Amino acid sequence: MLHNSPSLLPTFVSLSSAVPKQAFDQNTLWDSVFDDWYADIPDARDIGTVTRVRKRHMAWDPARELGGRTRGIGERMKDFVGIVDEVAGEAVENLLQTMHPTDVGSIVMASSTGYYGPTPDYFLAKRFGFKSNIRRTFIGHMGCFAAFNVIKTAIDSVTTRPNEYTVGVCAEFSSLHFRPDPSREQAIVHNLFGDAVGAFTLAMREPGHGPQILATHTHQSYDTSDMMTLSVLDDGVRMTLSPYVPFVIASLINQFIDDLCASASVDPANIKHWAIHPGGPKIVDMVAQRLNISEHQLASTWHVLSEYGNCASATVLLVLEHLIANDKPQPGELGVMLAFGPGLTLEGALLRF
């Protein structure tokens, strides 16, 4: 358990998301750039359908920014500075509708797609008038599960200082790292990832103020570190993704859920709501099969994958935001958040709505 009190727990008081203004459907991307990049791959265009992604928001239009060439890491990071301030700023501004900036004691931010210093959380704190003694943490290069590192750092902050809010931000702009690498693996990656920011405020609250976090759990599969990787190259960040990833996650997921629920003395059969990071359609399908999750319970996961793509660490926050707005969980109902990333690493949180 995260806290000794049966009622006062770390709570998602508010959630917010924002995306770049540019949006592209899969056919447009194939017509404008991918047909050329993957001309030598048989049935390459089918990849766009297999991913189940319909539309994505992107900081970069690959046809205009890349075309027949690539770009250096310096150019990519220069554009990250501008887009993260714009889009993350929109998400944080939405959070501040429900609190005053001086009530925020900590800001925690993650990104695997951009680097500069001072880190973006510094400029967000300055822009919105956060206190000059605010505690800042920036989490880099952990991949799709990094929202949970943000959440757990936020938990530590609010349990230690229960009169303060903590702001958490996950800002990912994968389109800044698209590169004309003519392999089937990279075609899958480039047809899956989109750009978004997910943000939240966490505070210690009684039931009824938002989803309470009952427990978190982590599992590192130390024998599978080569199945999903992120490497910084001269011309961007390159991701590798083994086709065996869904099988490994599926083999671990039942024990993972048992361990997560046991830490809060909860029966897994009582989980009603599932916010699953859509790392890819096969991952979602296999996890759902192992856990007997219905299509209705996957509606928010599939919606985010279709309309935004895999937005790395921001994605699970987008799924939770959509789930709350559309499923309207009832007070006392239980839910689970899940995400998966390099390692392979499984991360989860048990929620009480």
TrEMBL record:
Residues 11-199 form the Chalcone/stilbene synthase N-terminal domain. Residues 224-352 form the Chalcone/stilbene synthase C-terminal domain. InterPro entries: Chalcone/stilbene_synt_C, Chalcone/stilbene_synt_N, Polyketide_synthase_type-III, Thiolase-like. It comes from the Bacteria. Keywords: Transferase. Belongs to the thiolase-like superfamily. Chalcone/stilbene synthases family. This is Type III polyketide synthase. It comes from Microvirga terricola.
